[in-house]
Each structure stands twice: as structure tokens, then as C-alpha cells.
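Final report, closing paragraph on structural work. Over the funding period we assembled a curated collection of sequence-structure pairs, and we close with a single example.
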Amino acid sequence: MGESFGGGIVVKLMCVSPEKISKSILLMPAGIYNSSKSKLILSMGFPMMMYLLAKKESWFNRTFSPMATEGETIDAETLEMFRLTFHHVKINPNMPSNVSKKSLVDYKAPTLLLAGENDVLFPGRKLIARSREIM
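Its predicted structure, as stored:
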């Protein structure tokens, strides 16, 4: 099972060692249909740059608001986790690249894919359509 970036790792494993997976669950995974970098820069990158320049809490909150369910805010504990991760962990900013249909030709295991309709990072409808196309 893999979610988001972790789902992208599972998708890559499907390509290189499909025999090691008897079944899988992918929750809004990277590596099938990633959002465009320009959309991410506008929705999350710009507010993060403003936070770094202004050090205002409102910009930090706006950086991660696209990850919240529509009409809701991100709870304080999750924001604190984002803050600690941002300030103390070196993270590779690149998502696992989208895999090709050819690279999944040997993958045969049953897979449950869960997608979020309004997900900013991995748009649900496009993620589902592309997974049907390549799996």
C-alpha cells in the first residue's frame, strides 16, 4: 500500500519487480498522473516563497491549504508536522515521474486505486483515466 509519494514508490516497484506484489492499494499515488509543475508553483510554491520572505503565518497556512478538503482547514497538528518537516528535513522536491504503459506490461496483480476529485497534486479524474490506460 502506498499513499502520495509512497504510492509513487509502489508504482515504480510495479515496473521493476512486479512479481514481488501480490496485490496493491494506491491512495492518490504519484507516478501515474502528476499535476503540472506550473500549477503546483502557483498553488503552493508562490505562498511558500511569500512565507520565506515575510515570515507570516498566513502565508505558511496558504501554502498547504490546497491539500485540505474543500471548505475545511488543515488542523493545527498537521500544520505543525508540515512546519517541522519544512524546517528540519531535506526533501527531494521532485515527485516520482509518471510511468509508461510499456513499463507496466508485466504487472498483473489486483490493484485498488483511490483518487481525490479535487486533489491538487494528483487530479482524480485524470489519475483514474490514465491508470485505466496504462494498467
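Residues 24 and 98 are 18 Å apart (CA to CA). Residues 36-94 form one domain. We thank the funder for supporting this effort.
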